[in-house]
Each structure stands twice: as C-alpha cells, then as structure tokens.
Design goal:
Bound molecules: flavin-adenine dinucleotide
Strand content: 25-35%
Largest sheet: 6 strands, antiparallel
Oligomer: single chain
C-alpha cells in the first residue's frame, strides 16, 4: 500500500471542487483495503471510501483523514445452471459502471440498459441504489461483497439484505461508512427484453415501433445516453453542465394531502410518478424536485457566484469554472428555502458531503 499525503481531491470528483485529503491510498486488491483500514484504525484516523467521485461534494478545506480510493478491477461471468437464461457478472468495485453497462448490452443481457451513461464505479452503485429511466440496480443485484470496517472481515450480502429503497440502501443509511464494497454480483437476463417505460425513451424509440420491431438492448442504452446528453447528464469533456454530481436533490415522496396543497399553491396539477414499493410509500407519489424548484422561481442557468443550476436540467447544480463548495451549498440552501417556503416541502440532498 502506498500512502500519499495531502492529495488534492478535486480531480477525483465530477464537480471538480474541494481541498486535499490529509492521507490518500489507491487500493487495487482486497488485501490493500484491509491494510489501509488497519492503518487508519491504528492511528485513529477517519476513513472515507472514494469511488468515481460522481456523487460527492468535498469541502474547500478538504478532508482531515484517509481517503481510500477503490481501484479493484476485473469482471468474471458465469451462467446460472438452475436458472436458464440468467447470467451472473461478478464485477470488481473499481470497474467503471458505464463500461460495464455497455458490455452487458453487447452481450445481450438485460437488466441495466436504462442505467447507461451514469458515471462512477460499480462499487458505488449499491450505495444509493442507483436508478434512472425506470430501472434501479436493486432489481439486478444478486450479492454485494464488502470489507466490514468494524469487524475487520469480508462479508457478503444477498440483495434482500441490502435494505434497498429509493436512493437508499443499508450502505448509506444504518451502516453508513461501515463497509467498503469490493465486488458486486449482477444477475442479468440473457436475451431479455429492454425496459422502455419512460416517455422520453418511448419517443426516441418511436421509429422502432413504426418498423414493428423491439429495440435491442444496445439501442436502448444508446438512446438513454443521447437523452442524458441532451440534459447535460452525461460526462462529456468540455460540457460545463456535467460538472455536477448529477441530481442534487431527491424527488420528494408526498402524500395525497400534500399533493393537493402543491396543486392549490401553484394553481397547476403537479407531475407525479409512482412512489415505489414499501409500506411507508403507500398512498404516496413522487413529485419531480425539478418541477418544484421551477415553481419556486428558479430557472435553468440561475447563477450564484461560480455555482449555477445547469442550463439544461433544473435538478443539477454545476461548477461554472472555479466554484467553491461553499458557493454550491449556498445555492442549494437558497433553493431549499424557497421550495420550503412555497410548498412546505423540505428537499433532501442526494450527493454525499465530505469534510464539512
Ligand atoms: C452527470 C451525472 C449524472 C448522474 N446521474 C445519475 C442517475 O441518473 N442516477 C443515479 O442514481 N445517480 C446519478 N448520478 C450520481 C452518481 O453517478 C451515482 O450515485 C454513482 O453511483 C456514484 O458512484 P461513485 O463511484 O462515483 O461514488 P462516489 O461519488 O465516489 O461516492 C459516493 C458515495 O458512495 C460511497 N462509495 C463509493 N464507492 C464505494 C465502495 N466501493 N464501497 C463503499 N462505499 C462506496 C462513498 O463513500 C460515498 O459515500 C449522476 C452523477 C453525475 C455527475
């Protein structure tokens, strides 16, 4: 294990913001993860696990602890004999997520095609149960292997033990900071049909429908990337709208009564989506945070210092050059206060904060 001091973190994040890590290790094996964890424990130093830095806002002062950058690579594959048509991919946590999605589409394996174009690592995907365009990793994950920083041992979780819900898992809730994910097993369906639930995708794939043929998984993944790019939600060099952490706020889940209040206050029927499974979601719907933000008076491109709402997507806060973390948080606070004042809804932040 090579220990580096005062390593700048901004280049490791999609925001491009933040000060240095007091200590930094790039771990390329499970042994190095265990070694780094032991070192942090012996020296009573806080440890933070870094993947692709695409859901992260690092403070301007940086982080006074050890940043463990997960660089494990490798993909193994096996057919499931007792379940014909199912294939398990065992993917090391440091693999690039979008490259993995591309491979599964080429292999004609369904289950994650709508999650194309999402930046970050495979190890980051179970943490907030990554989702987009009608799919979530929760439905495709078979197992998660991780190092337990409390017990100093490797453990494995079945998907049903991961506590998956909307942008939530045990890894970002009850067990936040406890595990270093080292491998995620994805169970996909060989020759399965693509999920085309969202209107954006249906419109873009209308040509296929006219021709009377099912789009291929690769075509759906390509369309998802195109739609994402049109919204500045695909990492493209030189595109200022993607210097972000993706959606900065979660879509609030509201009860019928709140929905009626939003309609009265805005004098419009709010758009809504199903709230997803879970007893706490019964009788509730998800309202797009982007719509609430616009109704609270913010337009795309709204700027505060060098931080701005993306010019193509109201839900993404972006770094327009030399933005500081403080500027991003000031913009977020202004938006949150306006939405709360107008609709009595407290927006919840999606990215993880480090060093605040
Ligand atoms: C342009 C853009 C578009 C996006 N679109 C979407 C979207 O459509 N849907 C969506 O859900 N997200 C989206 N995101 C957010 C982000 O890409 C995902 O949350 C991604 O899975 C984060 O992975 P990461 O490796 O970059 O994690 P990081 O940002 O490095 O870390 C995020 C959190 O996960 C933890 N973590 C990371 N790796 C591990 C590991 N191996 N073990 C334990 N903990 C770990 C970190 O400690 C931290 O708490 C988008 C981001 C951007 C910039």
């Amino acid at each position: 294990m090579i220990l580096i001091e005062n390593k700048p973190l901004a280049p490791f994040t999609t925001f491009g913001i933040g000060g240095p890590a007091r200590w930094f290790v790039e771990a390329v094996s499970e042994e190095e993860i265990a070694e780094a964890a032991a070192w942090a424990g012996e020296h009573s130093i806080a440890l933070f696990v870094l993947g692709g830095g695409s859901n992260l806002l690092v403070s301007d002062a940086g982080f006074n602890g050890l940043v463990l950058h997960v660089g494990l690579r490798g993909i193994a594959m096996e057919e499931v004999p007792e379940d014909a048509g199912q294939r398990i991919y065992q993917v090391a946590a440091g693999e690039d997520w979008d490259r993995f999605v591309e491979r599964t589409a080429q292999d004609n394996c369904a289950g994650v095609e709508c999650l194309a174009g999402i930046p970050g690592t495979v190890g980051g995907t179970p943490v907030q149960n990554v989702g987009a365009y009608g799919q979530e990793v929760a439905t495709a994950i078979d197992r998660v292997r991780a190092f337990d920083l409390q017990q100093h041992a490797f453990v494995e979780f079945a998907a049903s033990d991961c506590g998956f819900a909307y942008r939530r898992s045990r890894f970002n809730s009850i067990d936040r900071g406890r595990y270093v994910v080292t491998r995620v097993d994805y169970r996909l369906t060989l020759g399965g049909v693509p999920t085309v639930r969202y209107a954006d995708l249906q419109r873009a794939l209308a040509e296929n429908e006219k021709e009377g043929r099912e789009p291929s998984l690769a075509e759906v993944a390509a369309v998802v990337r195109r739609v994402r790019q049109s919204k500045g939600m695909l990492m493209i060099d030189g595109d200022p709208d993607c210097r972000s952490a993706g959606s900065f706020f979660k879509n609030p889940v509201v009860a019928e009564e709140q929905l009626r209040r939003i309609a009265v206050v805005s004098a419009k029927e709010p758009p809504r989506f199903p709230a997803g499974p879970g007893t706490e979601n019964q009788g509730c719907v998800k309202v797009p945070a982007a719509w609430l933000i616009e109704q609270a008076g913010f337009a795309k491109g709204y700027t505060l210092g060098a931080a701005a709402i993306s010019s193509r997507h109201t839900l993404a806060l972006t770094n327009r050059g030399a933005a500081t973390a403080s500027e991003v948080l000031a913009l977020a606070a202004e938006i949150t206060a306006a939405v709360e004042q107008r609709f009595a809804i407290q927006l919840e932040m999606e990215p993880v904060l480090l060093g605040f």
